[in-house]
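Question (not urgent): is this output format expected?
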Amino acid sequence: MLINIRNCNNIDSASLEIKKGQLNIKFAPNGTGKSTIAKALISNSDEEKLSELMPFKLRTDNPDKLKPQVTVTEELNTVMCFNEDYVSQFTFQSDELLSNSFDILIRNEAYVETEKEIEDIVNNIKALFFDNVELDTFIANLKELGAAFKLTKTGISKASTGMKGLSSGNKIEHIPAGLEVYQSFIRSTSNVNWIDWQTKGQKEFSEISNCCPFCSSDTQEKKEQIEKVGKEYDKTVIKNLVGIIAVIEKLGDYLSDDTKEKLAVITSLPDGLGKEHEQFLSDIKNQIDNLFEKLELLKKLNGFNFKQDENVNEKLSDYKLDLQFFAIIDSEKTQVAIASINDSIDNVSKQAGKLQGKINIQRAGMQKLISKHQTDINDFLSYAGYKYVVEISGEDDQSQLKLRHIDYNDFVSGGDQHLSFGERNAFAIVLFMYECLAKKPDLIVLDDPISSFDKNKKYAILEMLFRRKSKECLQGDTVLMLTHDVEPIIDTVKAVSDQFNNTVGASFLKYTQGKLYEQSITKADIKTFSQICSGVIGKECDVILKLIYLRRNYEILDDKEDVYQVLSNLFHLREIPIDKREPIVGEEYPKMDAQKFDLGCSTIASRITDFDYAVTLERLKNQASLKEIYEGCSNGYEKLQVFRLFNMDVKNSVIRKFINETYHIENEYICQLDPSEFDLIPEYVRVECDKYLEIE
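Got this back:
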């Protein structure tokens, strides 16, 4: 697929090719715009997010009304990206490493397929509850009645709402003497609000005046009667009583005649409950809780209600409802409803053998996945040198990925408190891989995922992500890795390319004046510096450039003999060469032996045929000649090496360090990209060097 990016942060234009089904590594120095590419791809279908990448130079002056754009030749419905934002948002749970561990690590395609087959069988039971308003209402009313009472070790709790409503008797039906005048209010549907209004008024306004606060008539003679309402009635008690009576009425014909009669007596008692009444309410509570639990299990029935190798037929029989043990609802209406539920259970029982087989397949697959993932992750942690192990712990769909330190037997609670930044990154990228395997995005973007790790950890992560069987890692997926680290390319394209099944493509991104160009990297482009040096010497280019490469080659080989001494004297502009291999005489090194000098020169001439020490020395002293060579350099690396020959006093310490140390990149790796072919020096460093030469 081809990706074109326009007007995003520092990128005016960029064209990238991504090959489907393989790892595409894009290598570029920092500041090139790698993170911008990642953000642009994540935001490609979201104009609001894409607008956040508007370049600053276009925010105030944009006459052509340019805007950030991303075009892709293939449809990208989903893009997942591993970057700093992902790591910072990655929250290690207090009891597990990864939220929703089960869905990400275990619920794969095979699992989902078996789960659906199990679901199809048990749906014969669950279907009774789908859009069944009457049955749902019955279950909800049972739940409400059961929730009104709580049981303790000694019996029914006096603190439960049902007991609060019944313990004082039914003062709606049995109005205390002297309060009969309030009957119409007490027995109205708004009785709770009236009691609240009456008691509040009595408390707040009775001390102000003997007049009624509503009609201003004299209340002196009725004061005792008014106060009695507040003493006899409590709005919360009445509200609870009304609620109990209402839910009993809603259950209606589902209740047995005997139950309805006894509840009618209990809710009509004038002076509260006796022990026999409380015992009956306890029996109701127990039966309701048992029945509600069974109905809820049937409503949510799935494969995890059955254990591996458990006798499914016996388990299904346990789910059947026997009304002789639920006497409170043993009515004709309930019998019809329960009969249909039991019939559906019988129908499923006819497929018990098939269901048993599917459940065993599901559990065996789970155990295999759990064992596989634990081994893979723990092998990675061990190879990378981390002193942690993971364990997928818990039963069935409650399985969670937990963390343990090798020096500690218990699980670690709250990974954020114990893991270093690097450890968090390592865990995050491995778990990101599993999330990608679960969600199967069209494109996976890795924004500088391993540059901060040391060498053994880098390779351990690459191996974890791309080397195993394709269904167990990202091998075979379309992956874009953006990096400023050349090591992954050396490993995957050259050193051990066969171990990655040769499914890796790499390229170099060169940034020039807002434009990003892509340059393919092949196995042949990765060379030792000796190979690079030989290549440059064999080219048609200036002698001084060839000598620069030759000297660097001798430095890398730590060969400080005759040839190196000659080259060192030459670049230090010495007409009389000295020999730093000899002891200092006085305050200076002695003059180089003529025979050794001639031998060094002849060795150089055998490789660079037009070499002449005196002629080259004069050219090196000539600033105009050096500037001509500088301007003729085809890449930043050579420009930087020639720039050093000017021996200028570079004021900026950062640029000075880059020139003198940082970009001697050949010192870092046995193999590297040929700097004469791949312009690895950031544009801003080249620009700074150009400025210094313009000043001169």
